[in-house]
Write a structure and sequence with these properties.
Layout lengths: L2 H34 L2 E10 L3 E8 L5 E6 L4 E7 L1 E3 L13 E10 L2 E8 L3 E9 L7 E9 L2 H7 L4 E3 L27 E6 L16 H19 L3 E4 L9 H10 L4 E8 L11 E6 L6 H11 L1 H4 L14 H26 L4 E9 L11 E8 L3 H7 L2 H18 L1 H6 L1
Parallel strand pairs: 1-5, 11-12, 11-13, 13-16, 14-15
Antiparallel strand pairs: 1-2, 2-9, 3-4, 3-10, 4-7, 6-7, 8-9, 14-16
Helix pairs in contact: 3-9, 7-9
Length: 417
C-alpha cells in the first residue's frame, strides 16, 4: 500500500474521530441543558391583527421573564431562564399581525431567548403568566398594540422584569388617586352578572352530583368581586343566593339598573358525546341558532321559567317600532364584539369547544338595548370539566380572562375616568 493511501486513511480516521467527538460534545451539552432547564416550552402561537396582536408560549412550569425592545429593526426580546423548546415535529414559527416572524433558542448557559421581529412600532399593552390548571399548560401571554416610532424609541432600553408570575388582573389600567367611591356613580359602566337557574331550578347536574346553579353562583360572586376591586364599574348580581328568578325578571333588573353589559353564566350538559365534549363557549342572541347544539341549549335554558311555574299570560308582546329595531341591531353588534373579546381571552385561559362563538334564541339575552352574552363555563356532563369547574385555579384563570375582555370592551370609557 502506498504512502498516499496510508496518509489518506490516517486523515479519514482522524476526521471521523474529531467529528464523533464534536457530536458527543454537542449531545452532552444538549442533554445538560435539558437537565438544567426549569421548564419545557411545548407550543407557541401568534393571534390578532395589525391593531392588536397576542403572543403565547405554552410551558409546563412557571418561570420569570424579562421583556425589552430593540430598534433598527423593531424587535421585542423575551429573555427566559434555561428552557427546553420541544415543539411538535412539524412546527414552524409563523408571524401574524404586528409580528412579522419570530425565533427562539438558547443564548448562553442558563439563558434562553425568544425574539419577535415586528412589522411596525408597538407598545406593550399587558403581559401575564397563567398558572397551569388540569390539562392546561402554564401560559405566558404578551399583548402588543400599534404605536408610533417615537413611543417605541422611548421604550427601548427600558426592560421590564417579571421575576414572579403575574396574574392577569395586574395588567389592567392603573387607577387614579381618586377614591372610586367618590366618583359619580353615573359615570361608571353598569355590569349585570347573571348566575343562571337557582331555587327549584337546579339547571344541569354533573355525573358526580355537581349542581349548575351552585357552580355559576360561586363563579358569579367571584367575578363580581374581581370587577368591584378595579373601581371602574358598578357591578350587580341578578341573584346572590339560591333563589329562583324568572328569565323576564333577570332582563328587567338589567334594564332597571341601566346596564351597559349583561353577562349570563351557565354550565352545559349533554347526553350524546358527554365523554368527549368539553370546554367553554359564549353565545349571543339570534333567532336562528348557529347549530343544533346551540338550538338545543337555548330550548333547555328557556325552559327554566316553565320549571319555576311562571305564568306567561301577562308577558308584553314584542315591540316592533323601527327605532327599537335599530337599537336592537346596534346592541347585537356590541354583544358580538364583547363575545369575540371573551373568546380570545378564554383561549389562553381554559379549554374551549370547537367554534366557541355561537348564537341562539336565548330569552335572557333579548334586551334590545343592553349588550348581552351567555357564557357556558364548561360541560358538567364531562368528568374532566365537572372536576375543573370546582377548581380554584380554574376559576382564577377564567375570571381573569373575562375581566380582561371587560376592560377591553370598556377601554375608552375607562381611559376617561
Amino acid at each position: 500500500m502506498s504512502r498516499i493511501s496510508h496518509a489518506f486513511r490516517f486523515c479519514a480516521l482522524s476526521f471521523y474521530c474529531v467529528a464523533f467527538s464534536l457530536i458527543a460534545t454537542v449531545a452532552m451539552s444538549n442533554a445538560a441543558s435539558a437537565q438544567n432547564a426549569v421548564s419545557v416550552v411545548s407550543d407557541a402561537r401568534v393571534a390578532g391583527d395589525l391593531a392588536r396582536t397576542r403572543f403565547i408560549l405554552d410551558m409546563d412550569g412557571e418561570v420569570g421573564y424579562n421583556l425589552s425592545f430593540l430598534s433598527h429593526p423593531y424587535r421585542l426580546v423575551i429573555d427566559l431562564p434555561s428552557v427546553t423548546f420541544e415543539f411538535p415535529r412539524d412546527f414552524v414559527p409563523k408571524g401574524r399581525g404586528l409580528v412579522r416572524s419570530w425565533r427562539y433558542g438558547s443564548i448562553s448557559k442558563g439563558r434562553s431567548r425568544v425574539v419577535l421581529d415586528l412589522n411596525s412600532p408597538v407598545a406593550l399593552d399587558k403581559t401575564f403568566l397563567l398558572p397551569g390548571v388540569q390539562d392546561q399548560p402554564t401560559r405566558l401571554v404578551i399583548d402588543l398594540t400599534e404605536s408610533s416610532p417615537a413611543e417605541f424609541e422611548a421604550a427601548v432600553g427600558q426592560a421590564t422584569s417579571h421575576a414572579q408570575p403575574v396574574g392577569a388582573t395586574a395588567s389592567v389600567p392603573k387607577q387614579d388617586t381618586q377614591d372610586p367611591a367618590a366618583r359619580a356613580e353615573n359615570d361608571l359602566p353598569v355590569i349585570i352578572i347573571d348566575p343562571g337557574h337557582g331555587g327549584i331550578d337546579s339547571g344541569a347536574v354533573g355525573s358526580n352530583g355537581t349542581l349548575e346553579k351552585a357552580i355559576v353562583l360561586n363563579f358569579g360572586r367571584f367575578l363580581k368581586e374581581k370587577l368591584d376591586k378595579l373601581g371602574y364599574y358598578q357591578v350587580y348580581l341578578t341573584r346572590d343566593d339560591d333563589k329562583f328568578i324568572s328569565l323576564g325578571n333577570r332582563t328587567k333588573l338589567a334594564r332597571g339598573k341601566g346596564a351597559d353589559l349583561f353577562i349570563s353564566i351557565h354550565a352545559d350538559s349533554i347526553t350524546n358525546g358527554a365523554e368527549t365534549t368539553r370546554g367553554a363557549s359564549i353565545y349571543t342572541l339570534s333567532e336562528r341558532a348557529s347549530d343544533r347544539m346551540a338550538a338545543a341549549l337555548a330550548r333547555r335554558e328557556n325552559y327554566s321559567d316553565v320549571i319555576g311555574g311562571v305564568d306567561f299570560s301577562d308577558e308584553p308582546e314584542e315591540v316592533t317600532d323601527i327605532l327599537v329595531e335599530l337599537t336592537r341591531r346596534e346592541t347585537k353588534n356590541f354583544s358580538i364584539h364583547f363575545a369575540r373579546l371573551v373568546v380570545e381571552e378564554l383561549k389562553s385561559a381554559t379549554t374551549v369547544i370547537k367554534n366557541p362563538l355561537r348564537s341562539a334564541g336565548f330569552q335572557v339575552l333579548k334586551s334590545h338595548d343592553v349588550p348581552s352574552v351567555l357564557i357556558e363555563l364548561g360541560f358538567l356532563s364531562n368528568n374532566l370539566d365537572e372536576k375543573m369547574l370546582g377548581s380554584d385555579e380554574w376559576r382564577e384563570r377564567v375570571s381573569d380572562a373575562i375581566v380582561q375582555a371587560t376592560n377591553g370592551f370598556f377601554r375608552a370609557r375607562i381611559a376617561q375616568q
